[in-house]
Every structure is written in structure tokens, then in C-alpha cells.
Amino acid sequence: MSVNSLLRCTIRLKRKHVATHLAQLRALSGADAVNALRPFYFAVHPDFFCQYPREREVNENSLKRLNGYLENLQKPGSVSVQPMKLTFYVRDTKDSSDLQPDLLTSGFRSVSFTLHTNDVLSTVMNVLKSCSLPVEHMKGLKARAETAKSPPEAGVPFYRPIKWDKSYYTFTGFRDPEQELQQARRVEPTLSLWLRNNEPEATKNHSASLPRREELNRLKKELCQRFDLADIRWQRSWGVAHRCCQLQSLSRLSQQNPEALINLQGHTVVFADQSGMNASGHVMLGTMDVHHQWTKLFQQLPSYRSLQQQTDWLKERISLLLGGTQVVHLERLGPVQPIAEHYSTLSIFHKNLMSRRLRLHPRSLQGLTMLLENDRSNPSLHEMGHFIIPTNCDPPKLQVFLQSHAPEARERTQRRNQLQAEEEAVVKQCLQSLSLRSLSKEPSVSSSQMILCCKRLVEQRSPLMQGLHVCISHFYSVMQDGDLCLPWDWKS
Q1: Are strands 484-487 and 477-478 parallel, antiparallel or unpaired?
Q2: How far apart are CA 200 and CA 222, in angstroms?
Q3: Cα dihedral sign for 28, 30, 36, 38?
Q4: pLDDT, tens digit (0-9, with 9 covering 90-100), for 125-149
Q5: For residues 364 and 241, what is the distance between their CA atoms, to the nearest angstrom?
Q6: Per the database record, which ranges form the DUF4461 domain (predicted)?
Q7: What gap in Å lies between CA 126 and CA 118, rounded to an integer?
Q8: pLDDT (tens digit, 9 = 90+) per residue, 431-482?
């Protein structure tokens, strides 16, 4: 063998060893990530924010994005990921004598940070430090990671996940999350007992909110009729007074500058965290923005509509290439996606499909739907019948997946439609039987859970809910306007 050939062979072997140990490092740190982040999960878990729906929703969305970030780092061949800004509401988990100066009176504080690390271990450290949480338990993990970087002759350390002893919580002053959750479940009241204790407060709050509710309905109807709006919605579960203020602000703008709102005709307006147009084509008005920013957005609506038309065209082209499968975007399944970002995702996916033409009958997948996601590596089938497809999915691999999973997707889609029809019927029955003013649910409550809950409520027939607004959730709560939040799996 020549010297050059021997040199090339040596280089290939070294590269192979380096790739192997980088994969070992990722796998090692990824396996321990959940244990290492337990103090963090304990401080931000949505179940501990039952009385604060907005903060609970923020933490739920941020946790989904963080988990996606960590999953991307563990994918084979992953080199780098896009920086991600996250916001969490962090509970104080220490004794009251050691409260932090930025702690809110409600018992938690807001923390924002940006992830830009390229391995799981550094990401976990970044999260813990950003939230001012202990990192002493990370020393063992860091030592193991350093060992994994050593030459292959040194051997790979034996993997064993961390199991925290009860003394850890005694030493650090933190409470055991598993123990606290078990205690919370044990003290959960029955529905009848909770209603007896909280119905007076709910009725009082509801009565006090009636003038604001009437004003809210009047303003919404007036604005929809005056500017031919399809609907007015809200991204978050703001109170009635907050929603009234938002509509009053839009009404003042319409009186001061009626020409500015002409471009809104036919649109659905959504009061949200930021202004723009979302992937569904709805006009988002940032609740923290001033009238000048709203007016500027209204002036840009013609260009947004042009972008929406191009988006619809891309969806039609993709549907033709994929046997009639429709690309959909469900806001309730994830964070709000701007129309520009949605268009970019569709464009990348369309170009990828055009690079290698597929052989699918034009109507072989008619009636099926798919969601596109940038942070996935493999296609999957959602329990509700949607295909979940990576934007950069290999076209031949995609064709095989769609054809092989089409029968199951149709069954699940049919089951979803049946559940939705059954849910509508049982909700209507519950409204009439219990004389409720309204009955809704949180997006995280499935149709099957809602059906079971409503059937049990009809059997219970509690008169204490009569005339109230009820929302089926995962926790008990009396909202500021008298709405009742009930867990779908309430105890009888």
C-alpha cells in the first residue's frame, strides 16, 4: 500500500472514531437530560400554575419548543440548530426566607433566555443557570462527557441513569416533585364538594361581570358589522374586562381613522401577542402595540393577501403532487406561525418534491391531511389522522410512508369525525340539561375526554352550575369573571 493510501485510510479511521464518540456524547447527555432537568421541570411544570391560565399556557408552549430543541440535538448527523428564545414563569421552590428579589407577589418570576448551544449537556446547563437553579448534580455528567471525548483506547464508561436520593431534596431545600404531585392528587376534592365551596364566589363574580359581557358583545357585533369582519377572536384566555379594553381601543381607532380599517374587510381579527398575519390568514393585533403599529399593519394587508394567495397556490401544487393530500395548519396544535414563515416552509417542501417526482395517483390520497414541521427527521401519523411530515423529507421515502399508512390514516380521520360529531351532540345535551350559559374546553382536552366528562356531568346533574359559564380543563379554578374551570376527570 502506498504512503498516500495509508494516510487516507488513517484519516478515514480517525474521522470514524470522532463521529462515533460525538454520537456517544450526544446519547449519553441526552439520556440523562430528563434527570438533570428535574429541578427545572419542578419549577415550571404547568400543573403548578392552575390558578394562572396565561402563565400556564406560556410554560406549556415553551416546554414543547425546548423539548423539540433537545430532540434535534440528539438526531444523528445534527451539527447545529437555530437559536431559540424561550420564556418561562419559574416557581420559587425554596423556603420563604430565601426569596429572590425579582420574585412576583404571585410566587413566580418571569425568565427569558436564548438557546444557542449545540449539545444536550451545554443546553441543560444553560437552562438551569438561566433560571438560577442548582447545577451541582451536573458534575458527574460533565465528568462522564469528558471521558466520552477521550481516545477510544480508554474505553466507553458504563452508562447508568441518575437516581436521586431523598437526601438530595433535604440538602438542597427543594421539594420532591413526585411526592408533591402525589399529595396534590390525594387532596383533590370531589366535584360536589368543590362546587359547594366555590359556587358562591363564581356566582358573585359572574353577576359582577354581566355589564362588561354585554358591552363586549355589543362592541364585537358593532365592529364586525361596520367593517364586514368574518370574526373577532383572542389568542389567550384574557378576562372580559381585558377583552373589552382591546375592542374599545380598536373602536377608537376606527372613529379617529375609519379609512385605516377598510382593508380589514372579510378578515378574522385575532388579538394576540404580536401583530401580523398568521398561517391561517387571520389578522393578528398585538395587544401591546399602539394605534400607529396597527395602522401600519392595515396598510400592509394587500401585500399580506398576496402572500396568502401564493401560499394557497403552493398548497394546491403540493396536493396535486401528493395524490390529493391537503396541507393544513392547526393553530391549536402549536405556537402561532406567521404567514411568511408558513410560506417559506411550503416553498422548501415544494422544491424538495419537485427535485424527485413522485408516482402517486392524482386522487389516491384524497380526503387526507398533513402538517409540515421543520424540526422533525421522520414522518409520523398523528392520532387524529394527520400526517406529520418533515419539510426536508426524502420524496421516495415520503411516498412509501404515505401509501403504507393511508388506510390507517383514513380510519383515524373517520374516527376523529365521529368523535367530533359525538362531542357536539353531548355538549348540546349538557348545556340544556344543566342550564349552562356556555360550555367550552381547553385545546389540550381531547374529544374523547370531553365526551366522557359531559356524560358524567349529565348524570351528576348538579344544580350549582346553573346559569354559569363552564370550561373543561385539567384543574379546578374560579376565574375572575365567574367562569368555572373543571378537570375533565373530576372525582365523584
Answers
A1: antiparallel
A2: 33
A3: negative
A4: 888 888 888 877 666 655 555 554 4
A5: 51
A6: 189-491
A7: 11
A8: 999 999 999 998 878 899 999 999 999 998 888 899 999 999 888 888 889 9
